[in-house]
Write a structure and sequence with these properties.
The structure is a homodimer of 354-residue chains. Chain A has 13 helices and nine strands. The first copy, chain A, is globular and about 60 Å long. In chain A, α3 packs across α4. Chain A has 354 residues and is an alpha/beta fold. The interface between A and B is medium-sized, with 33 and 33 residues.
């Protein structure tokens, strides 16, 4: 749900209503804590049955089994009972770790999500996939664990750095391009505004953008929550990127890796005559407006090919590389030849120069 | 299912049929491997799609998150895919760790159980609770994860040490006493035979004992698999024992801790005039026949009281201490006073002396 007044405003009943006087442990990203910790603590002590607040210096590097252990140990020492609730306040990394911790704690405890980043709100908070990185692989350990609920408060975005904003916009572009043409067109008109105002204005556009992105994700995920079907349009941008992120030692934020993947995938579709050049051009124009990368040293044919083998294994032998066909329509490639990648990368370089 | 010929006999189709040429990783207890490893390896290479066999020196001390990580790392390196299967061969510890690892691996992978101990067959393999010990607490991290299936082969029991056998009999006594009077009476007649022959004779009695114990457990667990109802008769013997085991630094096997707990719980019921002295006497006679302990240095009023607080937390504020009323009937105590425990322990000492 979206709230119309700050989620930690004492007079706002939304969170207290959702948690119903049950015992909770809050895990809050340390940056968020520095900015909003005072409000959070006042709300927790006056409106909630909070048995402990743990701050967590979230980063993709910290998305480890050790961090999960820290969360679990903290909750055990705070005496969080089996029917207590973990409340995660932060970006995707915080939400994922706390979700995975809740899934294991006393063999399964409920959790509640308050995303403070755009990616957290439109992407992480829509799914039920919890996890930590392991053995150099993204989200290799975890669970499908359904949260009790969540609250979105776009006011948090006001304090996000630019690269967090562009990373979030990448996930929204993904949804718009494949699932909701109106959303894509909305971003073409207002993407730059949303980026420069950190989603604070125009307010109605920000709200529509968030709602459309979440709804389209939900519609797409809902019939296949447990991923028995491994062909998923929402995996657009999530094939090469799963390799790019760890390969960059997580210097590339998830959303930027997704953006680079979408660019290559779209160029592959153009080269294969599946998709128009015009759509690729519109995508590139949008990237420019919101400061998404058009190139990266790791985006090379040889390195991208390396990404395909583990993804094929993850998807049970089928590559299922999602590529766009037109706005609102995608399809899957089951194989990619080195020459195709070469041509696609040359195409990206050309259109990138404008 | 129970098999009539050795499970790893090359001509036995049972396991191959169940695993259907899917990729598997086998995790086998190292003692079992020493005894049956050759048969297992021959079967795995000729009848199964086995991508790796990991031996594991199982003990309660090793039931850790680190062991779980080892299992997961091994499977990742062996390339076990998302739709592969973990096959656990061993006692309760091995089954529990592999179950928990499977629950987390790639966010949830199937697993298959081949118990080689009595406890593994009648207790662990009937439930869906997977877990590892953490922070001094039994099974504190884990998952409810439904296995693909399992195969019971009582031939494995022939090589079990005496204390493993008596520990297994404790779990069967638990089931008989509260859920199946015929099973309890069967044990009164044949418990000693089953113990001395390691369940190899009389064969029909051994089979009936195993089947009755498993069926009674299943009937009781089935409507409440996820434990939304925290009053469970199968928790008989599992209140004080959850404290005794770690307090003994796991020198007490699980089944022996359960036996001591059942003894104290039954004596509490006798002292509360809920249960006849005669039933306590019959229980003690059975313990003698199968070498179950009647006393332990940790079984003291002060230490047993310590066990109650964390269990109350685990069961959401209600103690739900299971005590017998008569054969096939139990009830729950919600409070235990020190004086009651004092009297119960004196009663146990008296009947123990005979």
């Amino acid at each position: 749900m979206h709230v119309s007044q700050p989620v930690f405003e004492l007079a706002n009943d939304a969170l207290a209503d959702k948690l119903q006087n049950r015992k909770i442990v809050v895990v809050v990203d340390s940056t968020v804590d520095a900015l909003y910790g005072e409000m959070l603590r006042a709300y927790a002590s006056q409106r909630l049955e909070c048995v402990g607040i743990k701050t967590f210096a979230a980063s993709e590097h910290m998305k480890t089994l050790e961090s999960l252990q820290d969360v679990v140990t903290f909750a055990a020492e705070a005496g969080l009972p089996r029917k207590g609730i973990f409340v995660a306040v932060g970006g995707g990394v915080t939400l994922d770790i706390v979700g995975a911790a809740a899934a294991m704690y006393r063999r399964g405890t409920e959790f509640f999500r308050i995303p403070t980043t755009v990616v957290g709100a439109v992407d992480v908070s829509v799914g039920i996939k919890q996890g930590v990185n392991f053995g150099g692989k993204k989200n290799f350990l975890g669970a499908f664990h359904v949260p009790l609920g969540g609250i979105n408060d776009p006011r948090f975005f006001a304090s996000l750095p630019r690269r967090e904003l562009s990373a979030g916009l990448a996930e929204i572009i993904k949804v718009g391009l494949l699932l909701d043409p109106s959303l894509f067109e909305l971003l073409e008109r207002h993407g730059e505004d949303l980026f420069t105002t950190a989603f604070q204005a125009p307010q109605s556009v920000a709200l529509e953008t968030m709602m459309r992105a979440e709804l389209a994700m939900m519609r797409e995920l809902q019939p296949n929550l447990w991923e028995h079907d491994l062909r998923r349009l929402v995996d657009f941008g999530h094939t090469f990127s799963s390799w790019l992120e760890p390969a960059s030692a997580y210097a590339l934020p998830h959303g930027h890796a997704v953006a680079l993947d979408m660019l290559v995938s779209t160029a592959l579709a153009v080269e294969a005559r599946l998709c128009s050049y015009e759509l690729l051009r519109r995508l590139v124009a949008m990237y420019r407006a919101v400061e998404l990368p058009l190139e990266h040293p790791l985006v090379r044919t040889s390195s991208l090919l390396e990404a395909l083998a583990p993804m094929r294994l993850h998807r049970e032998g089928a590559l299922n590389l999602v590529v766009p066909v037109e706005l609102g329509l995608g399809t899957y490639l089951q194989d990619v030849e080195p020459e195709q990648l070469d041509r696609a990368l040359r195409l990206v370089a050309r259109v990138g120069v404008r």
